[in-house]
TrEMBL record:
Keyword Chloroplast part of the UniProt annotation: no
Lineage of the species this protein comes from: Eukaryota, Metazoa, Ecdysozoa, Arthropoda, Hexapoda
Gene source species: Ooceraea biroi
Name of the featured protein: Two pore potassium channel protein sup-9
Cross-referenced SUPFAM superfamilies: Voltage-gated potassium channels
Entry keyword Metal-binding: no
Domain Potassium channel, residue spans: 75-132, 168-243
Location in the cell: Membrane
A Gene Ontology BP annotation from the UniProt entry: stabilization of membrane potential
Membrane topology: Multi-pass membrane protein
A Pfam family hit: Ion_trans_2
Keyword annotations of the record: Ion channel, Ion transport, Membrane, Potassium, Potassium channel, Potassium transport, Transmembrane, Transmembrane helix, Transport
Any one GO molecular function term: potassium ion leak channel activity
Cellular component terms (Gene Ontology): plasma membrane
């Protein structure tokens, strides 16, 4: 099985296992609290119905009014400032859900706006992340030069450390500001910053939703938008170093396999006979039924005369060897062949001759003058 397929199956198994473990842990941590809260709310509902002597239908109406009125307490959500905030959450895929379009035109435009805006935002943040990594590498190289390091090049580990530090500083600073303006605890502010910058966007905690902050606090609105955009750029830099590097491993493996296949194809040697000579030429050897007839064929003629024991014979290609000619000598064993010593008076004297390895056969058969 290819390495890419094994990696994909491994990722699927690990992801499913991770989901199962997460579900089990969340069940342990949150299910009991959810049950207690539900019991407390049901008790309050019954107490209100008894106290004011209203029906359950009237209580449902009151509940709906309260839920629908809650977003409007933050001020107008669809003036230019609030609309810009909403457009930012769409483009960055945060999607708090604190304000949603109610008209058909607004919903239709949101879909078309997201189709173009989301890829545009991803490309922009990815580009910013690359520039940020480049700037970080330059700073790391300068610092190493000042400290007289031998290797001044910025490694991936150095960049990861820098980007991680920037992410921690950004979340910590943003949490301090949101804790002051929103009145949240510092831990809740850190939670909000993390959920926002990772584009999870649950919507349980949303900034700019108190005291009509969208219209009365323009400096706070500007800070929140800059924090979101700059923080997402930091996250994009982290993704560029971590996630995208791992994702491109399959592509690198594919290119490596293609390169190896191309290299193997270039080193392939096609045989038209049985033997490849040491100098790269092709030598064809055919032995008869009784070992008394042999024919040799090379790219150049071995013998210029018309000897009875030497015939040029064309043979169809039989197989392909994907090895260099210099690396197959171990496949050519020693053999004992019955040869005929031809004399000048045309008399034939048969005797057994020990034949050297086939790589040396061309040296045994020269011009008839040498015989």
């Amino acid at each position: 099985m290819k390495k890419q397929n094994v990696r994909t199956l491994t990722l699927i198994v690990i992801t499913l296992t991770y989901l199962l473990i997460g579900a089990a842990i969340f069940d342990v941590l949150e299910s009991r609290t959810e049950k207690l809260r539900k019991e407390a709310l049901d008790a309050v509902e019954k107490r209100v119905i008894r106290k004011y002597n209203i029906s359950e239908e009237d209580f449902k109406i009151m509940e709906t009014v309260v839920l629908k009125t809650e977003p409007h307490k933050a001020g107008q959500q669809w003036k230019f400032t609030g609309a810009f905030y909403y457009a930012t959450t769409v483009l960055t895929t945060i999607g708090y859900g604190h304000s949603t379009p109610n008209t058909i035109g607004g919903k239709l435009f949101t879909m078309f706006y997201a189709i173009i805006g989301i890829p545009l935002g991803l490309v922009m943040f990815q580009s910013i992340g690359e520039r940020l990594n480049k700037f970080s590498s330059v700073m790391i190289r300068n610092v190493k030069q000042l400290l007289n390091y031998k290797d001044v090049q910025a490694s991936e580990l150095n960049l990861i450390c820098v980007v991680t530090t920037l992410s921690v500083v950004t979340i910590a600073g943003g949490a301090a500001a949101f804790s002051r303006y929103e009145g949240w605890s510092y831990f809740d502010s850190i939670y909000y910053c993390f959920i926002t910058l990772t584009t999870i966007g649950f919507g349980d905690m949303v900034a700019l939703q108190k005291d009509n902050a969208l219209n009365r606090k323009p400096e706070y609105v500007m800070f929140a938008l800059i924090f979101i955009l700059f923080g997402l750029a930091i996250v994009a830099a982290s993704l560029n170093l971590l996630v995208l590097r791992f994702v491109t491993m399959n592509t690198e493996d594919e290119r490596r396999d293609e390169a190896e296949a191309l290299q193997a194809a270039q080193g392939a040697v096609r045989l038209e006979g049985d033997v490849i000579t040491a100098n790269g030429s092709i030598l064809s050897c055919q032995i008869g039924n009784h070992g008394n007839a042999m024919s040799f064929e090379d790219d150049a003629s071995v013998c210029s005369c018309r000897c009875s024991g030497f015939q040029r014979k064309r043979r169809r290609p039989r197989f392909t060897v994907r090895r260099s000619p210099g690396t197959i000598s171990h496949l050519l064993p020693m053999q004992q062949l019955s040869a005929q010593n031809i004399h000048g008076d045309d008399s034939v004297e048969s005797r057994s001759v020990a034949v050297t390895p086939l790589l040396q056969l061309p040296s045994l058969y020269q011009h008839r003058a040498s015989i």
